[in-house]
From TrEMBL:
Cellular component terms per the entry's GO annotation: plasma membrane
PANTHER family: BLR7065 PROTEIN, SPERMIDINE_PUTRESCINE TRANSPORT SYSTEM PERMEASE PROTEIN
Protein name: Sugar ABC transporter permease
A Pfam family recorded for this sequence: BPD_transp_1
Family according to the record: Belongs to the binding-protein-dependent transport system permease family.
Length: 328
């Protein structure tokens, strides 16, 4: 209901704005020349930084482009896509991408929600805790990856030293050098770095919940978990949908964090699709195959966005219209 109510309010605001615009004289609706002067440079910048690279990827995905063989040119048709599909590393990289994305986003959500619930109440030193919890998210990815690589090192890493000292491990473990621990370890490090973004987002949403709702529910005898389930969680739904959608896309296309920590190893145990694209382009020098795989990833991400934008949100709008019709 929280998402439905938010969209209903947004539609009411949009309708009032449309009505005010209809009453505005046509000559006042025209965009002044000074506005175009400011908009044109931004539009040109977006075309240069977004549109041109995107179209270039699509173009090169159906052409032969090889950095070490300049004679390999011309239209390739589906040859680059066949090169990708015939690669034995494609399915393992796809599976690693799914695991990396699902567990990263899931862990970030759980930790972010738990920490936001812990910080939303009046606690001593709450401002200090809120300031400190955002520090991991402010650390650059390369710095965070290198720090975790040093912490997890089997010979001089602090984590192994502590675990052996307290008796949880009999000997140091090469967390990033074993097939069954490399990807989970990198995922945990990524969760540690990213969950503060969820924390501050959920904290802002929780602080916007009217306290009268909790007070009324408490007077009616509702326990804390029921107040959270029926009051807080519905208000978090719009924020949750936005965060999860964005972070699924950002995490799936993330390259630098895994590359800094493991470079996709050992034996491709932590290789994801972005790392496979990098290897096609800058190790095998087959730019055409790299663009083909990148184009497939862009198509998958765009499909996810449109399903969210026009699928789920369309159902929510239909429900809002039904509620408005019932009220009328």
């Amino acid at each position: 209901m929280g998402a439905v109510q938010s969209i209903a309010r947004g539609q009411g605001i949009a309708q009032r704005a449309k009505t005010a615009l209809a009453k505005t004289p046509r000559r006042r609706r025209r965009l002044p020349l000074i506005a175009w002067v400011f908009l044109v440079p931004v539009a040109l910048l977006l075309l240069a930084l977004v549109a041109y690279p995107l179209l270039n990827v699509v173009w090169e995905s159906v052409h032969y482009v090889n950095l070490t063989n300049p004679t390999a040119t011309g239209f390739s048709g589906f040859d680059n896509f066949e090169t990708v599909f015939e690669d034995d590393n494609l399915l393992p990289a796809l599976w690693n991408t799914v695991l990396w994305t699902v567990f990263s986003v899931g862990g970030e959500y759980v930790l972010g929600l738990a920490s936001a619930l812990a910080l939303v109440g009046p606690i001593r030193g709450g401002a200090i805790f809120r300031a400190c919890i955002i520090i991991p998210w402010l650390i650059p990815i390369v710095v965070a990856g290198l720090d975790w690589s040093w912490i997890l090192a089997p010979d001089y890493g602090v984590l192994n030293l502590w675990l052996v000292h307290i008796g949880l491990l009999a000997h140091p473990v090469d967390w990033l050098g074993q097939l069954n621990t490399a990807l989970p370890t990198v995922t945990l490090a990524n969760v540690w770095r990213t969950f503060p973004f969820y924390t501050i987002s959920f904290l802002a949403a929780l602080q916007a919940v009217p306290p009268e709702l909790h007070e009324a529910a408490a007077l009616d005898g509702a326990p804390a978990w029921k107040r959270f389930w029926h009051i807080s969680l519905p208000h978090l739904r719009p924020v949750t949908l936005t965060l999860v959608t964005l972070h699924v896309i950002w995490t799936a296309v993330n390259f630098d964090f895994i590359w800094v920590m493991t470079e996709g190893g050992p034996l491709n145990a932590s290789t994801t699709l972005p790392i496979l694209i990098y290897r096609y382009a800058l190790q095998n020098f087959d730019v055409g195959a790299a663009c083909a795989l990148a184009g497939m990833m862009m198509s998958a991400m765009a499909t996810m966005f449109f399903l969210y934008r026009y699928g789920f949100m369309g159902l929510v709008r239909a429900r809002v219209r039904r509620l408005n019709a019932g009220d009328a």
